[in-house]
């Protein structure tokens, strides 16, 4: 567990790479799935070099955390993946049997790049996670279906894309969009419950979402919640540090 958490902390603290995209392009980067949106189950993808469909991958779990990533990313993709995996590994989410599904944004990245990102970001938590590759046409289809707007920077061979995840049901139905770098079990659970069972979580879960600025009408965080998201990101880093400290002390006493 320590390895992916350290990886996440290092990437969050790392300076951003130089970018050549215009402010207009960056302003179009967003995750805004339409109401009732679904990911196409017949989308052709590959896992570890073996062809399959997105439907077969999603069918392994009642609900999944779904995200796009650049497998050669020099920014925060690895941190986002590590945080998602750590949240899913929380014992409070064990009963949901949720999965982690990642689709590479860059069709040039093959299975080797996907495995390197998976192993570096997730470490021992990589078991059960699906890191998929796809042709450009499939990436376009999936991003359009998910309302995922990104831009490619040819000057740096990097992608400007939302640091966000989707809670997706096994039938491809999109539940909610969540900020990836402030993802925590308390916010992830109700999103997966809704995606997996087709219902809104209990009253406590809805209140928590409102405290985080969640807009139930759109499934997104509102602009007024930006400060809360920044604070949540800081709390996530703090919680990761405390987890590492606790595990280190435990290992010294055993």
Automatic annotation (TrEMBL):
<protein>
    <submittedName>
        <fullName>SCO family protein</fullName>
    </submittedName>
</protein>
<keyword id="KW-0732">Signal</keyword>
<feature type="signal peptide">
    <location>
        <begin position="1"/>
        <end position="19"/>
    </location>
</feature>
<keyword id="KW-0812">Transmembrane</keyword>
<keyword id="KW-1133">Transmembrane helix</keyword>
<feature type="transmembrane region" description="Helical">
    <location>
        <begin position="227"/>
        <end position="247"/>
    </location>
</feature>
<keyword id="KW-0472">Membrane</keyword>
